[in-house]
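User: Just a sanity check before I run the rest of the batch. Below are the structure tokens for the first item. I only need the designed sequence back.
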């Protein structure tokens, strides 16, 4: 019950303001346009480093979304009030993680056409495989990001502390997503890149369990 309450609350707040989503989409689109005008490589050469461009863009988009989502609640002391509510904090973590996952996925779905249009990436050739990577990577990012944001953003230096703590933890996810996407764009079968998929699933599982059981302690002042 608490999970659905938090999830619906966060989504309703975002639908009312569209502040975080608009910021994330504009940021991602701006980076994609910069890449499009900065790189004049041939399509074959561009495709060789395109997976890195995709996930670097969404890496920083996710961090921006976390800062905006949690920062908005901190500005009005809503996050502190939420933590004082008689709710299971594991459910609070899961609800906020699910809401951020939906927000990140929505921002990606809006901005992905820019990659196809301006960088001529053949993502449409393997839509199922790429969608699988996208969803699992977003789940891992949401689990790690929500846990670290919940711990750091109550600190006076939270906006500085969040990237410092988050970047080392998200780097393996970024590498795994880039390698898996590179394999998909190269037309490799699942057996050739399932290791990276399992690594993403492992990160997701570990941080979901960690967040569920320890969010009560790390969210304290």
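Assistant: Here's the designed sequence for the first item:
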């Amino acid at each position: 019950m608490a999970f659905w309450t938090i999830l619906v609350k966060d989504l309703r707040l975002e639908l009312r303001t569209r502040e975080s989503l608009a910021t994330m989409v504009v940021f991602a689109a701006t980076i994609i346009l910069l890449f499009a005008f900065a790189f004049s490589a041939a399509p074959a050469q561009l495709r060789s480093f395109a997976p890195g461009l995709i996930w670097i863009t969404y890496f920083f988009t996710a961090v921006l979304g976390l800062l905006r989502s949690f920062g908005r609640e901190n500005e009005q002391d809503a996050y502190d009030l939420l933590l004082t509510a008689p709710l299971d904090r594991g459910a609070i973590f899961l609800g906020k993680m699910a809401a951020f996952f939906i927000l990140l996925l929505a921002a990606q779905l809006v901005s992905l056409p820019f990659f196809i249009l301006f960088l001529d990436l053949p993502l449409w050739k393997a839509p199922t495989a790429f969608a699988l990577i996208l969803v699992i990577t977003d789940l891992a990012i949401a689990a790690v990001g929500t846990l670290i944001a919940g711990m750091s953003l109550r600190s006076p230096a939270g906006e500085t502390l969040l990237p410092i703590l988050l970047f080392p933890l998200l780097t393996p996810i970024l590498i795994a997503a880039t390698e898996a996407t590179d394999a998909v764009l190269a037309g490799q079968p699942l057996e050739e890149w399932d290791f990276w998929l399992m690594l993403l699933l492992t990160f997701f599982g570990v941080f979901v369990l960690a967040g569920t059981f320890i969010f009560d302690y790390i969210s304290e002042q």
